[in-house]
Amino acid sequence: MHIQIQSKLPSVSTTIFSTMSQLAQQYGAINLSQGFPDFDCPPELMDLVSEAMRAGFNQYAPSPGLPLLRQKISQKTQQLYGHSANPDTEITVTSGATEALFSAIAAVVQPGDEVLVLEPCYDSYVPAIELSGGVPVFVPLQFPGFRVDWQQVEAKLTQKTRLFIINSPHNPSGAVWQKEDLDALTTLTQQYPFLILSDEVYEHMVFDGQSHHSVLTVPALAERSFVVSSFGKTYHTTGWKVGYCIAPAALTTEFRKVHQYLTFSTATPLQHAIAAYLDNQEHYLTLPAFYQQKRDLFASLLQPSKFELLPCTGTYFQLARYRQISDLPDVEFSQWLTKEAGVAVIPISVFYHQNLDQGVIRFCFAKKEETLRAAAERLNQL
């Protein structure tokens, strides 16, 4: 008997990140595509994981997360953003930020609810909305600076808008929200009853003396927001998949109902290690300078090239126009660049639901200096 399966995600295939990483491996290209470092996390953090394992912390952690880790997250949040989150009822440790994003969307989006999405956007948002029966409503960011057009946002808001997903520092563009963006968002919350999902995984990668403007700094926003963060990004440990979500108690209750059946809990020794390492504030406080140095190095190395770099004020991504090199569509150019020039990148059109092609690609500069130099040497020959 032939069994037919009707896909819940008919338009979804293998992600571009997996595709480009496989292509990089196949052709021996330098991989500046997927957003992960090619250097290790702090040695002390690895030692703390080993210590936790040898101490016997190898069974399930409590589903909301290790109590000590949640306490440390609460202290960090108070110190950085002046927001006092109750570790028992408002903080949940998750198996990566992507799990937190999915849990938040699944917790509050009902069939037919509208969810506002700013494009270009991280590729997990829309599938999670669709799996919950929600309707994504797209608002394009203004090219090439990727600023929010608040008039367009307001025009798309309706009484059916359940959730507004925001992201700063922004993947893929590297743009960073300003205080006036939070002010504009606050004004809209006074007129419409939507919730907010704030993706802040690059919170410690903001450059040029700017600050990260978390929604947690504004009580009127914090009281209706899920705020998602990532230890993977902060500690160069993307493979550990440890993140967390801060939300008011009522939202956290619904969040945890999904979380407990999605992953139940996150790796116990990793939570113990991170809880201990959070006492080292220097690591995350010096991260902006660490990544700004890499951004500046990569930009200077590409100075002789025919790429036109767009402004990058946060994250570890650098966008670039390539029209002086090729008139290929961005997906084809990215494949050509991987095969012929030996450098793998990500085309920006994949971050748009209609694959808007603006002739722009994304480099990840979370790499060792020798990796960036080797990549630039190849790119400068084009």
Provide an overview of this structure.
The protein is an alpha/beta fold and 382 residues long. The chain folds into 2 domains: 16-41 and 286-379, Aspartate Aminotransferase, domain 1; 43-283, 3-Layer(aba) Sandwich (Aspartate Aminotransferase, domain 2), CATH 3.40.640.10. 40% of the residues lie in helices and 15% in strands. The chain is built from 15 helices and 13 strands. It has helices spanning 16-27, 43-54, 67-81, 97-108, 125-131, 150-156, 179-189, 219-222, 231-234, 249-262, 268-277, 281-285, 287-301, 330-341, 369-379; strands at residues 30-31, 91-94, 114-119, 135-140, 161-167, 195-199, 225-230, 243-246, 308-309, 317-321, 343-344, 346-347, 360-364. The strands form 3 sheets. It has a 7-stranded mixed beta sheet, with helices on both faces. A 4-stranded antiparallel beta sheet has the order 9-10-13-12. The chain has a two-stranded parallel sheet with strand order 1-11. Helix 2 (43-54) crosses helix 11 (268-277), helix 3 runs parallel beside helix 11 (268-277) and helix 4 (97-108) packs parallel to helix 5.
Structural class: alpha/beta
How far is the first residue's CA from the last residue's CA? 55 Å
% residues in beta strands: 5-15%
CATH class of the largest domain: Alpha Beta
What would the principal axes of the Cα set say about the shape?
globular
- The string of secondary-structure elements, in order, is HEHHEHEHEHEHEHEHEHHHHEEHEEEH
Q: Which blocks of ≥5 consecutive residues have pLDDT under 50?
A: none
| CA-atom Rg in angstroms | 21 Å
Going across the biggest sheet, name each strand in turn: 2-8-7-6-5-3-4
Mean pLDDT: 97
